[in-house]
Amino acid sequence: MTNRKLHRRQILKGGVAAAGATVLSAPPVLAQEQIKWRIQSHWTPGIEYYDTIYVEFARWITEATDGEIQVEALQANTVAPTNEVLGALRRGLLDAAFIFPGYWIGRIPAAGHLNGNLATWDNHEEMQFFFYEMGALDVIREAYGQYGIYQAGPISFGGLAVYAKEPIETADDFKGFKIRSTGTPGRVFEKMGATPVFVPGGELYQSLQTGVVDGAHWGCVSTGWGMNLQEVTSNIVTPDFLSHSNGEFIVGMEQWNRIGSDHKRIIHDAVRAMSANASAHFRHLDYIRMKEFTDDMGKNISTVTPDVMQQLRAKSLEVVDEYSQEDPEYCGRLGDMMHEFMKLTGKV
Question: Which of 150, 141, 155 is nearest to 110 (CA)?
Answer without folding.
Answer: 141
